[in-house]
């Protein structure tokens, strides 16, 4: 049964089931079937069959599926690039819905607020990202800037890269943010060294480094709260 959803028996159509009973009553496989839309002709599997295969492959762990690469999804028999990118797009949209867009002149008043905002964005990331929040004289957000992608070290997180946009935007202060893909927010010696270097550079330039917050899976570490800044 590799045809489209409209060709299935009515009691097997997740679209009709969702319209009648709501999304909460659909299984993960049925929700995936709505995204996948069509089955696989070669294996004669329906979209629900493929949805079940995907769920089974990732151990019914949606977090694992959400962080999977397109190549990892297409490794499942019957899942081509179009189906895989559709799944990735659905997870990306859900992530954007969870994380409210930072607005100009918003203000974070605690490290917890920073974590609550950013952990949805980074909790499933397999790469390390380093960001800087540029703040005005009242600690209101001017904008965010991504400085690097990859393991944190002094060569890629250079004071020039951090403070150049701060100077351009006339920022009075910055908050440093990066994630640990391992899920453990404990700072490495390199994290501490980079932070100290940036703090010293900021003091010379008259731009305060208010905090450095490391985002883990379900927890965070604030350099200020730990007395490291």
TrEMBL record:
What keywords are annotated for this sequence in UniProt?
Hydrolase, Metal-binding, Metalloprotease, Protease, Zinc
Mind telling me which residue stretches traverse the membrane in this protein?
A: none
Q: Which Gene3D superfamilies match?
A: Cytidine Deaminase, domain 2 (3.40.140.10)
- Where does the MPN domain start and stop, copy by copy? 107-229
For this protein, the record's SUPFAM superfamilies field holds: JAB1/MPN domain, RuvA domain 2-like
Q: Which domain of life is it from?
A: Bacteria
Q: Where is the signal peptide?
A: none
The record's listing under PANTHER family reads:
DNA REPAIR PROTEIN RADC, UPF0758 PROTEIN YEES-RELATED
Q: Which family does it belong to?
A: Belongs to the UPF0758 family.
Q: What is this protein called?
A: DNA repair protein RadC
